[in-house]
Q: What sequence folds into this?
């Protein structure tokens, strides 16, 4: 069993070959090509302002893509991420208003709630042997319901003034929410590439049976990935709450599918064992570039889902055909 | 795998088979739920609320039948809700704006559903895309097309004939409920009693073995994808005549509720085993909870929590049962 993930460029093949083989380079080229085409159609597309707004838009979902990518790499998936984000937003909002806790503590507890739901997902999947697809689908309902029950369906508003500090602080011309995303992507990309836990995660997803024989506690690896995904989902909800200055139970509606689409377009394999965090991030960026570009090109905004869906299907069909040849 | 299970069960007595059947567990759940809400509000147990629940189940129920068959064959269709919206909007536009004959428009709506089902099948069977992902893609595409075609607005008014079709009642049952019950009976019969149903279970239980045994697994799956799409189209066109308005928001979230119903009904998501009656009961549990909570004046948001909790309960029950009888 080859424990080296295929998509991490192997040193033996030389730098150039490594670069051309790495899916990240392919994605970057696709993003550049798409960006160039859209700039030809509408020169305003290639502005710094637009680049900033692109990054700002994907900041929240992007945080979750990291967790989902790691979870897919270990061979599982989480459909509850959007609901957990919404639940965490409400928990944080209520703790800092009705309960009157300090803002950082309220946010921390909300993230802990997300980690808890991830832990439940993980234990039910690994120990009870229920497919993660249905476990997390159930959690989707539970977390969403809790968010709505706690808030009565209404946004929690107004929040204390300091709440926007987390996401809206301007650092070097970019809002802090974007920095949070970029830093998290970098950290987790490095962990998955270089740290031993990353190797163990790839091994678990690549072949769980062999990994167990090699002495890896695959259940623990998977539970850890679930906890991380839950925590990151909750954190995304908290960051968006900070951005909006209001906690809304509808935060995260439909995110689970966008997150999956981004990870898959970014070269994460659904059967586990392959893909990188940077790739998943670029996948999300690519989807957003296409969406924004189409708006700039005057395509009706309601057609955006059609494009996302087509890109998703084409990307996967391409991936499948590449693997089969 | 499944074949062995079936013969194993046949050695059991009729009674033991009944007790062990997953839909028996769902039925027990349903009785518990109904009992609970009747205790909270005795008015809950009435013919009127039963009829209201049936009506509320009808549209999503038609979709769930196709989905059950597909899941038993080992595939998924997450595009059903969006396809219902696309069929709804297409038929509405054809009859209200193009001026086509309403009945013909409804059939075209249904055909659009079948066509999307065929596309799903080609992506999954022809290109090897996982059905889970292919149908998520299709879900985005169909929803986007529905919103775009309708210019994001309701489509009104429909020709009188469409509304007359929607008003059809027989034995006190509305057209949609009649169609729903008809398809439940047909689906249950096909899956449990026909040769084709046996092929479906074989395909889902062990595709390789089924293929070697001469089952045309791809053709079976293709038919089921088309069926799932067509039933989604049927549900969409029925909502159109029932509510009298074309709307692109129809079917939002149906895919998740339908899967929840399938799971609660005891169908295995690994494929190979499952029943249409189980799905029917699962869907009824979900709707009984929804109506019961209103009757008991419980915050309706709890209903979403309950959906998830009951799914987890039935999944855990199934997992525990599997562990206790490992030979199955």
A:
């Amino acid at each position: 069993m080859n424990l080296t993930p295929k998509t991490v460029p192997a040193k033996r093949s030389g730098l150039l070959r490594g670069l051309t083989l790495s899916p990240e380079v392919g994605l970057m080229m696709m993003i550049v090509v798409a960006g160039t085409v859209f700039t030809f159609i509408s020169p305003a597309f290639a502005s710094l302002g637009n680049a900033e707004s692109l990054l700002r838009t994907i900041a929240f979902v992007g945080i979750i893509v990291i967790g989902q990518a790691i979870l897919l790499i270990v061979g599982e998936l989480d459909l509850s991420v959007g609901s957990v984000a919404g639940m965490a937003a409400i928990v944080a909002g209520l703790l800092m208003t009705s309960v009157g806790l300090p803002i950082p503590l309220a946010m921390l507890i909300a993230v802990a709630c997300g980690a808890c739901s991830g832990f439940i997902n993980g234990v039910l999947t690994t120990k009870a042997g229920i497919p993660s697809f249905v476990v997390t689908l159930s959690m989707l309902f539970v977390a969403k319901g809790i968010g709505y029950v706690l808030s009565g369906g209404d946004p929690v508003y107004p929040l204390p003034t300091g709440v926007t500090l987390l996401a809206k602080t301007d650092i070097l011309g970019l809002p802090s929410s974007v920095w949070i995303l970029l830093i998290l992507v970098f950290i987790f990309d490095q962990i998955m590439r270089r740290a031993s836990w990353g190797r163990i995660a790839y091994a678990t997803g690549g072949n769980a049976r062999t990994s167990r024989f090699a002495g890896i506690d695959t259940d623990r690896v998977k539970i850890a990935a679930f906890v991380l995904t839950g925590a990151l989902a909750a954190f995304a909800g908290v960051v968006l709450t900070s951005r909006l200055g209001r906690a809304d139970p509808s935060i995260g509606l439909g995110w689970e599918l966008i997150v999956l689409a981004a990870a898959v377009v970014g070269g994460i394999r659904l059967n586990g064992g392959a893909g990188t965090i940077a790739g998943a991030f670029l996948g999300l960026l690519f989807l957003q570039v296409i969406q924004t570009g189409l708006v700039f090109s005057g395509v009706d905004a309601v057609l955006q889902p059609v494009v996302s869906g087509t890109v998703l299907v084409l990307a996967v069909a391409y991936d499948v055909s590449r693997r089969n040849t | 795998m499944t074949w062995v299970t079936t013969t194993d069960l046949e050695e059991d007595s009729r009674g033991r088979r009944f007790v062990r059947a997953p839909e028996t567990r769902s039925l027990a759940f349903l009785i518990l739920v109904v009992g609970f809400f009747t205790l909270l509000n005795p008015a809950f147990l009435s013919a009127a609320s039963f009829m209201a629940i049936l009506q509320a189940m009808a549209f999503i129920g038609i979709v769930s039948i196709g989905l059950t068959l597909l899941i038993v064959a080992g595939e998924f269709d997450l595009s059903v809700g969006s396809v219902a919206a696309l069929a709804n909007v297409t038929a509405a536009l054809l009859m209200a704006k193009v001026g086509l004959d309403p009945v013909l428009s409804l059939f075209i709506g249904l055909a659009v559903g079948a066509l999307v089902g065929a596309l799903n099948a080609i992506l999954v069977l022809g290109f090897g895309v996982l059905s889970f992902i292919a149908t998520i893609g299709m879900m985005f595409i169909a929803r986007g097309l529905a919103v775009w075609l309708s210019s994001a607005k309701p489509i009104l008014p429909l020709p009188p004939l469409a509304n007359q079709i929607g008003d059809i009642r027989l034995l006190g049952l509305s057209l949609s409920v009649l169609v729903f019950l008809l398809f439940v009976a047909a689906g249950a019969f096909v899956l449990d009693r026909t040769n084709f149903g046996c092929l479906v279970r074989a395909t889902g239980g062990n595709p390789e073995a089924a293929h070697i045994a001469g089952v045309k697994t791809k053709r079976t799956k293709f038919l089921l994808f088309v069926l799932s799409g067509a039933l989604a189209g049927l549900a969409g066109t029925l909502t159109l005549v029932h509510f009298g308005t074309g709307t692109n928001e129809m079917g939002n979230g149906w895919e998740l509720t339908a899967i929840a119903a399938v799971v609660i009904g005891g169908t295995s998501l690994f494929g190979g085993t499952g029943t249409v009656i189980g799905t029917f009961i699962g869907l009824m549990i979900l709707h009984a909870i929804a109506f019961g909570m209103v009757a008991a004046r419980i915050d309706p948001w709890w209903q979403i929590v309950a959906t998830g909790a009951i799914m987890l309960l039935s999944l855990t029950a199934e997992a525990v049962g599997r562990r206790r009888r490992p030979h199955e």
Notes: Confidence is low (pLDDT under 50) at residues 1-9 of chain B. Chain B touches chain A at residues 123, 127-130, 132-134, 136-141, 143-145, 147-148, 152, 256, 259-260, 263, 269-270, 299, 301-309, 311-312, 315-316, 318-320, 322-323 (CB under 8 Å). DSSP finds 15 helices and two strands in chain B. The two ends of chain B are 8 Å apart (CA to CA).
